[in-house]
């Protein structure tokens, strides 16, 4: 071989150069992506997600079993068949059991709850805006135990909302892991929420969707996988304990005719009316209760007495109400009874929550939807007997319509109804009913019940968490303080008419002041001593804070 001939090794390297270049590019890109994933704290999220799912699944099992144990003390059963058990119970027990349970709840609210109330989904949404802050472990645990006592003693509310808070609280305990960004901390909350919904309803897909739709407020691709893992594992734990069965085992239903679809749209209108009246009842009763002067420990006891009085006539309102909902889906309730239960359950749930019992609105919304849908179906069958489907089918559609309108979660509620009933063949009718109900409710109320609760507390998050940030950030967070070596300026005279800011003013107030006075820089005075300047605020820097919040929220929802 001559010296000028290419050597075999050099030829091989020349032939494989494109492959080696492609491989190096792939490895470099992979390392860069993995480094970005680590910098965002996602490796910790992935590690924590399965643990959260298992913990929340076990907590959901324990939560449900403890409710059954409390219920066993006076009803003699741990099952969902509360109405059947109540038929064999003396009237005085039905009257007094919720009141006695309420007395215990009231004492616990007074002694152990920091805010003298239990927590719910609205508190989780607020914690999401705070990037995972505000969900302390022991208050969350005591809130769950108070809810156990409430529902076990017959309070007319749901167990899923409080379970969502407990799941989020467990997820929040992992937000102390190192190198977590605000977005990754919110993901840990969502993992707990998804696990709670999926384990409570035996509905893993609905748990995934609910966490994104209600808590995160977006469907970012990076968030789906860890939240799904937590949802699946929580469901597995619940199924290992309770079995793989739907919450409501119902006969097969099918749409009789496509001519029924106008009726399904009209049912959506009916569901919107029921959802709006239900929310007005909840808010109005709560407002009335706040204007009644009564010691906190007596409030649940009095409410329990009222609930017991209603239960003497309508025992169907006691507890979660799954047995009565199931009866509506099975075509076992008459028109008059369903119409009366609409009123009775609305009143009982409003009294329950206004009296500071623990509980949520998931199950009551499903209950009211089943009653409204079943009653609508019976009326439709009388008007158009040849075209109308069974009232059980309308009850399923009503469940989805009212619950979606109240919760402000059309997608996840639709899937919850699918997974609760196994009724996937009703998808077209359910989507139409839910869409009409949610659209009309939003047009009239402009918000879900959860955001209504937050706005009553002075927190407006329905337009985006960045607006909440504007009210949370204070001037002291972005002002330029006086250098330590520099002496404070001469005392400032706030009466001189010169524009200024206080260090405790919100970012919203600062932006408004900058806009009104047109100044680029403003002195900042001590909130406790308005005559002493403590720093300087710059308009540009305040805008940077606000823009950063906008960019961060947009990035999180599209990553």
TrEMBL record:
Membrane-protein topology: Multi-pass membrane protein
Principal subcellular localisation of the protein: membrane
UniProtKB keywords: Chloride, Chloride channel, Ion channel, Ion transport, Membrane, Transmembrane, Transmembrane helix, Transport
CDD domains: Voltage_gated_ClC
Transmembrane segments: 42-63, 89-109, 187-210, 216-242, 263-282, 302-322, 361-381, 393-418, 424-446
Subcellular location(s) per record: Membrane
InterPro entries according to UniProt: Cl-channel_core (IPR014743), ClC (IPR001807), ClC-type_chloride_channel (IPR050368)
Entry protein name: Chloride channel protein
Source organism per UniProt: Roseibium aestuarii
């Amino acid at each position: 071989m001559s010296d000028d001939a290419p050597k075999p090794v050099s030829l091989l390297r020349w032939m494989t150069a494109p492959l080696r270049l492609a491989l190096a590019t792939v490895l470099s890109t992979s390392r860069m992506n993995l480094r970005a994933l680590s910098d965002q704290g996602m490796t910790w999220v992935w590690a924590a997600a399965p643990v959260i799912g298992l913990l929340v699944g076990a907590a959901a099992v324990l939560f449900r079993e403890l409710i059954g144990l409390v219920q066993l003390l006076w009803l003699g059963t741990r099952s969902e068949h509360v109405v059947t058990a109540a038929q064999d119970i003396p009237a005085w027990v039905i009257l007094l059991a919720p009141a006695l349970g309420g007395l215990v709840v009231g004492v616990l609210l007074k002694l152990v709850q920091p805010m003298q109330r239990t927590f719910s989904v609205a508190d989780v949404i607020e914690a999401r805006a705070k990037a995972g802050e505000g969900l302390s472990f022991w208050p969350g645990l005591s809130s769950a135990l108070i809810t156990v006592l409430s529902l076990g003693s017959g309070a007319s509310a749901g167990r899923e909302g409080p379970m969502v808070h407990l799941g989020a609280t467990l997820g929040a305990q992992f937000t102390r892991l190192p190198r977590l960004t605000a977005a990754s901390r919110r993901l840990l909350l969502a993992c707990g929420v998804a696990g709670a919904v999926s384990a409570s309803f035996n509905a893993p897909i609905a748990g995934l969707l609910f966490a994104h739709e209600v808590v995160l407020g977006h469907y970012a691709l990076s968030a789906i996988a860890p939240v799904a893992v937590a949802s699946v594992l929580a469901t597995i734990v619940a199924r290992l304990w309770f079995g793989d069965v739907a919450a409501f085992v119902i006969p097969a239903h099918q749409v009789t005719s496509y001519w029924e679809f106008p009726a399904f749209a009209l049912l959506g209108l009916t569901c919107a009316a029921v959802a709006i009246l239900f929310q007005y009842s909840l808010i109005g009763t709560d407002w009335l209760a706040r204007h009644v002067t009564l010691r906190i420990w007596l409030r649940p006891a009095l409410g329990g007495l009222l609930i017991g009085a209603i239960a003497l006539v309508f025992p169907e309102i006691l507890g979660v109400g799954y047995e009565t909902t199931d009866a509506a889906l099975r075509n076992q309730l008459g028109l008059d009874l369903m119409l009366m239960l609409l009123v009775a359950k609305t009143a009982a749930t409003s009294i329950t929550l206004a009296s500071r019992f623990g509980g949520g609105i998931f199950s009551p919304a499903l209950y009211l939807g089943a009653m409204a849908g079943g009653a609508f179906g019976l009326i439709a069958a009388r008007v158009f007997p040849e075209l109308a489907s069974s009232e059980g089918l309308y009850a399923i559609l009503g469940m989805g319509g009212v619950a979606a309108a109240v919760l402000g979660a059309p997608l996840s509620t639709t899937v919850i109804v699918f997974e609760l009933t196994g009724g996937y063949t009703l998808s077209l009718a359910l989507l139409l009913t839910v869409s009409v109900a949610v659209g009309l409710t939003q047009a009239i109320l402009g918000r879900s019940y959860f955001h209504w609760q937050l706005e009553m507390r002075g927190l407006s998050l329905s337009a985006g968490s960045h607006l909440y940030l504007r009210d949370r950030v204070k001037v002291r967070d972005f002002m330029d303080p006086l250098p330590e070596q520099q002496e404070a300026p001469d005392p400032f005279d706030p009466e001189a008419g010169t524009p200024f800011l206080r260090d405790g003013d919100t970012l919203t107030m600062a932006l408004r002041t900058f806009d009104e006075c047109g100044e680029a820089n403003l002195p900042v005075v001590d909130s406790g001593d308005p005559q002493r300047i403590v720093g300087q605020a710059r308009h540009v820097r305040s805008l940077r804070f606000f823009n950063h919040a906008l960019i961060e929220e947009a990035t999180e929802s599209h990553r």
